[in-house]
Amino acid sequence: MTQDALATVVYTSTATQPFDSSALSDLLRQSRANNSAADLTGMLLYRGGRFIQVLEGPSDVIDDLMATIGQDSRHADMRVLLREPIAERSFGDWTMGYEPIGVPAGDAPEGFRDTFDDLESADESTVARAVRELTVWFRVRRQGVPETPPS
């Protein structure tokens, strides 16, 4: 893979302490500034003390960032679910899109994902399909909504 080749990585991790709206806002502000400077885009989902993040950008930058995240004391149990080269970005307009995943009122719709635990033991094709579904879900929910941290 050439140095300028694009890659995507999807990982999960457990927060070492709860993230309230203020802590998430701080994390997003820092991530967006860093990602913009490093030519990274992606999506961050947070629910019940767990993160799932999709990052995309230059392969070498992704590798450096993953090493940094792996040493970040705010995360534990980091697990890379998928890493692959990509031809184009899915989140080209987002330095870091964010969506808190709330529990739907009433019956959950088919395919509602209330945990990421199943992805940790899934094969690569299942993870890739789930990430595509999450990407579509996220983009539809965020259509036309500017990147703003939670209040």
Characterise this structure:
Helices cover 36% and strands 27% of the residues. It has helices at residues 21-38, 59-71, 117-120, 124-142, and strands at residues 6-15, 41-47, 50-58, 75-85, 97-100. Strand 2 and strand 3 (50-58) form a beta hairpin. The N and C termini lie far apart (40 Å).
Write the layout of secondary structure elements.
Layout: E1 6-15, H1 21-38, E2 41-47, E3 50-58, H2 59-71, E4 75-85, E5 97-100, H3 117-120, H4 124-142
Parallel strand pairs: 2-5
Antiparallel strand pairs: 1-3, 1-4, 2-3
**Sheet having the most strands:** 5 strands, mixed
Q: Span from first to last CA?
A: 40 Å
Spell out the helices and strands N to C. Answer: EHEEHEEHH
The low-pLDDT segments are: 144-151
Rounded mean pLDDT score: 75
Shape: globular
Key words describing this protein structure:
alpha+beta, disordered C terminus, 5 strands, 151 residues, single chain, five-stranded mixed β-sheet
Give a quick rundown of the structure.
This protein has 151 residues and is of the alpha+beta class. The chain has helices at residues 21-38, 59-71, 117-120, 124-142; strands spanning 6-15, 41-47, 50-58, 75-85, 97-100. It is built from four helices and five strands, in the order βαββαββαα.
